[in-house]
Records
---
Amino acid sequence: MKKIILTGDRPTGKLHLGHFVGSLGRRVELQNSGEYDKIFIMIADAQALTDNADNPDKVRENIIEVALDYLSCGIDPEKSTIFIQSYVAELTELAFYYMNLVTVQRLQRNPTVKAEIQLRGFAEHGEGDDNQQRKGTPVGFFTYPISQASDITAFRATVVPVGEDQEPMIEQTREIVHKFNSVYGDTLVEPQIMLPSNAACLRLPGTDGKAKMSKSLGNCIYLSDSADDVKKKVMSMYTDPDHLRVEDPGKVEGNTVFTYLDAFSRPEHFEKYLPDYENLDALKAHYRRGGLGDVKVKRFLIAVLEELLQPIRERRKHYEQHIEEVYEILRRGSDEARATAAETLADVRRAMRINYLEDRELIERQAAEYRK
Ligand code: ATP
Ligand code: MG
């Protein structure tokens, strides 16, 4: 069986460090490993519209930002196919059929959807409403796990590299694949989730110490932030609120600066920027004992992040001067993605026996019956 990857991001803003450690950095590694037959990377505009129906301009403006972030991180359009979700109409049709294989009750149990409904305030009372009226959850938003299942299966993806929040989505996809194959015969490929191997990367916290770095929470370090912005953001980052004086013992657990070091620092960074310490464990031990100030640790983190971000920033500058070419990359990728999804859709229609016009057996049998 071929090894195929599908992943993507919502074009609701520029990409940040959470995207990088959760999935984007991994995609670049997988792309360059040469172990995969095909890598599809999707800019999920249709999904972004499910909770931005009133703001299509936000989505429209951010397609290019996400594409620029991909290219500047090292996604190579010669090796990976970057495409725009809404330009592959087959995905919508697949989702429509899969909807019949999933219950409302099953969707209601999805923990990520539940959390996001809360986060977006869909469950709260609407403005100016007197009694029980709620803002309400858009049906498209509620059903986006099904749409994700069609994205994944359309490309026969075997592996989906994503952050921890996506686990329930991949589980939902696997259930749809089982159900489809058992009802209509073996057609769809069951995907495996690929989570970050480093625990700090499963769900990178925000600079404010909140559980997740997320565009909607405004606690992000963006891949395109200037060196100055990165410095400011790190310097004001959440640490241990009880670590007031340098000589006080400090806590490393739940201390965002250390979580980021868990995620980004490597032993060679110590040799280069902080040779007094052999490794991260030695630095943590000193912090716990007391006598190590936040500023020193933050300066080190800035150096570590700059090593990652500086080349990304440079490559971005290049692509920013070639916007028309980037759109051409998206056009070519979308055409290619569409051809692949069309093959799967044809298989699906055949399996579901709704390929009437291509089905000679059906037409000839009915003709014969009427001739009798
Ligand atoms: P939005 O606020 O619009 O939902 P987002 O910042 O959550 O945006 P998504 O586009 O939903 O980003 O996520 C894209 C990919 O990045 C997913 O695979 C997701 O798991 C991963 N990801 C996003 N934020 C983080 C994070 N803080 N830590 C680890 N992975 C993350
Ligand atoms: Mg999200």
Note: The pocket of adenosine-5'-triphosphate (ligand 1) is lined by residues 9-10, 12, 18-19, 21-23, 162-163, 165-166, 203-204, 212-216 (CB under 6 Å).
---
Amino acid sequence: MIRQAKAVRKVAGKGVHAARRGRAVRKLRAAKVDAMLVTKPVDVGYLTGFTGQDSSLLVGSGWACLVTDGRFTEQVAKDCPDIECCVRTGPMEAALAGVLKGRRVRKLGFDPKHVTVKLRNDLAGKLGGRKLVEVSEVVSSLRQAKDDGELRIMRRAIRIAEKAFKELCGLGPKGWVGRTERDLAAELGYRMRQAGADGLSFPTILAAGAHGSMPHYSPGSARVKAGQAVLIDWGARAGGYCSDLTRVVFTGTIPAKLREIYEVVRLAQEAGIAAIRPGVGCKAVDKAAREVIVKAGYGGQFGHGLGHGLGREVHEAPGLGKLSTVRLKSGMVVTVEPGIYLPGIGGVRIEDDVLVTAGSARRLSGLPRDIDAMRL
Ligand code: ZN
Ligand code: ZN
């Protein structure tokens, strides 16, 4: 069943999706492709405003059709009344072929990273003379630079994460010592929900003491002790966008070794952020921060990239790492998160979300970073 596009309702911000589809189509034209199949949910949402799942978008010059199923008919009408909708009752490939019937599409682009081999094969069998062509990164490259509306939502996702964290820290050492990592992580998540989050950006990392040396530790049944460092990496998802922050807090006296590495990491983060401006290679930003850690003798204990793009996904392009070939552009939001990890002792990572602006870099997150402010 294909519902024809309703007259475009005057809904604030709705024109934004049509403009994004226009930019995507211009990229397709440059690649000599007539239309594209978009299957990745965050890309579908970016181009349409649709907030449901399991739906694919076909987009071509001057037209777009969302192929969904009966669970989402009401959702589509609410989220994106300005585009055609096909509510499929059979297999996805048959519905897609039906939508393409009668349209001037000789070459249909698809992103090989987000189309299963099965869908590709099944669709190829139904397209007649049309050709399927691999086109990569069309939508993800558009998503890198955020517009004002996206930045407003991202600031909200960051504020929610910060509010919940401040509340948890406000319980003081008595509210932390003796509780399990899992319990504290759950409370942080609950407080983010109370503050307006739709969910977590990713499962919270909350690592007590020596567990902090594992960058992607999963909180368990270990109980927080007095005089310990606790590394927390958390984020709120709101309005379809993510925040991603890391802080280390101390439940009493700060161990000397952790004080030493904390200061190195803090200075490395400053150096990374100072290097951020439009036109600079992501690799150079990573290098600026990494040099501080290498000079302090901990180069071997910083085993991950400096940061990553942030937006509808918690990890998206561009990556700030040694291998990146991307140059920063105004409007990109990246995390800057150097770390030093000492097995058997613990770890320190400080992560903030940073906007690349015409002038330089603007921290969107405002939690304290000074070590003495991190004592509960
Ligand atoms: Zn993080
Ligand atoms: Zn991160």
Note: The two ends are 59 Å apart (CA to CA).
